[in-house]
Amino acid sequence: MEQRNTSLPLIALTLLTGIALGWFLNDLIRRPAAPLALAPASPPAVAAPTASISVAPTTAVSIEPTTAVSVAPPALPSVATPAPAVMPSPLTSEPLPTATPPLRIVGYAGHRVAAGETLETIADRYGSTVALIETYNRLDAPPRIGRELVVPLLAPTDAGDALLVRRGGAERPWIALTLDAGAGAAPTPRILAALRERGITITFFLTGRWMRANPDLVRQMVADGHELANHTVNHPDLTTLDDNTIRRELNETEAILHEIAPGATTRPFFRPPYGAYNERVLRAALAEGYLPIYWTLDSLDSVGEPKTPEFLVERVTGKLSQNDLRGAIILAHCGSEATADALPEILDRFAVMGFEVRKLSDVLK
């Protein structure tokens, strides 16, 4: 009997302990589950407090609290291992073309275009190319019959024709006004100003000596868009010189221009000083890549008695007929004061007559 009375408090104590444990577990379950958010998707199973109370006391005591409330360390979120980057396979293509080596010009030949000839047939004859002939002669259209050309050679061949140009094509009302510069330069700024005011560009034949003495005027000519041509270094009578000296006169003039105005050139035109020439001089110049240019009309501004501006206006605009003025090459000089004075009226009168004053390369087309 004493033993049964002792067991009753023990049972009551056990029951109270179970209830307290149930409250404790319920409190844990109701707390914010921040740590548990990182746990696997399936939450841990925890016995509800009522379930603990409904069972026999011995069963409730047998549950280990550590098992019911054990929480695994927060599991790091699973991050998918990135797949290896797939590099695109190189595109299959044709091998890159190698740079085309520049063509090597070994010489030049003179040629006058005949009826039925084309640039293709001329290039085939001399072992050249159409592009080389076009570029060197400043062509932008098929050349007319009778057009004189300098043909760049890619292999040694015949020297072609000994050429001397006296006029351009008569198909258009164009006149080539060409000014030689070998002596004085004082009137040249006024000449350039008159041309600039009218938007006219022409061809100047310059000596190397004149260019060295007047580099600023040379650069102004280039800036204004004028065409420059070769008149030798020292203005000698080329018929008295040997071939090597002729070549040196031409090549040194080109070199001087390169020093003063890089990128400019005197090619492909050349005028013999004093108009003195023979076949040997013509061929020597052509072999260096220069087309010899003479004139249709000399203004006479550098020969004989000094000329007045009125004389020059009448001679230049009235000496030749309207038909003969078409394609005419007119000679005057940069050192002539009378030419500088007469030039504005000459240009204006040609305009009234329906003529355009152009570069030599234009008029030769």
UniProtKB/TrEMBL annotation:
Pfam families: LysM, Polysacc_deac_1. It comes from the Bacteria. GO terms for molecular function: hydrolase activity, acting on carbon-nitrogen (but not peptide) bonds; metal ion binding. GO terms for cellular component: membrane. Residues 173-358 form the NodB homology domain. Keywords: Hydrolase, Metal-binding. CDD domains: CE4_NodB_like_6s_7s, LysM. GO terms for biological process: carbohydrate metabolic process. This is Polysaccharide deacetylase.
